[in-house]
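Human:
I keep going back and forth on a fold encoding question. Comparing notes only helps if you start from a blank page. Show me how you would write down a chain together with its backbone fold. Write it directly below this note and I will take it from there.

Assistant:
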Amino acid sequence: MLQNFSELGLKDDYLQAVEMLGYTRPTQIQVETIPLMLSGRDVLAQSQTGTGKTAAFMLPILQRLGKANGIPRALVLAPTRELAKQVADATEGFARMSGVRALAVYGGQSYEVQIRALKRGVDVLVGTPGRLLDFIRQGRLDLSQVETLVLDEADEMLEMGFIEDVETILNELTEVKQIALFSATLPEQIHKLASKYLTDPAKISINPSRMTVVETEQRFYRVREETKLAALCCLLETDDVTSGLIFTRTKARAQELADDLLRKGFSADSLHGDLKQARREMVLNR
């Protein structure tokens, strides 16, 4: 495996950017994807969250874009607001030497704020399908110059019912020359989408049989419903957890559990779809 970013075909501006961001060695998805995307190939990649795929697709996109011109020439579709914002923030870091501007557009944030940002000029647009479609239908978004499209976490978009919206957006892209599709799993509908829109894609699979990244240790405990909270508190105390993410089945349960943990002296908060976007961002920042 290649051991450093300088062997992947990246220019000095982007090598400096990754060094400043603390990247030392490329991950496997970066090693396999960056040269392919730099060459202009379409890519169908199976890769789990946490493997470094944002850098894998964004570094070659930025290098191929060249200088900023304030017109969206690269578009990234993401299933959630948080992921859209995360990708846009990462893009700003990678593009610090080039002047290329990135913007995340998503529901829950003021239309006016996003429209003003679009008018100031954007080179890389990252968005959720719903908000992007709103802008397209309102005639506020011109995607006629988009050359590169990335579908990030495509299986999540499928599960959330966004595939029809994604196809509607794809049909708006008349000048797109390169498409990259990233997905943790590749169900039949994702394969159909890829065969319909991607041209002779290079296929990449990063440990497809392993559903978590190597750094993740997995354990499970069988507990009764009535003892779940006590068991959770015991784990948080005995494992010396400094930060954690707990998934619940419902939004109401997320709030109840956060309140229960607070009463027991843990620093906890809830994050779910009923919260306003400003509140969600505040929780994430905490």
The two ends are 37 Å apart (CA to CA). The longest helix spans residues 81-94. The mean pLDDT is 90.
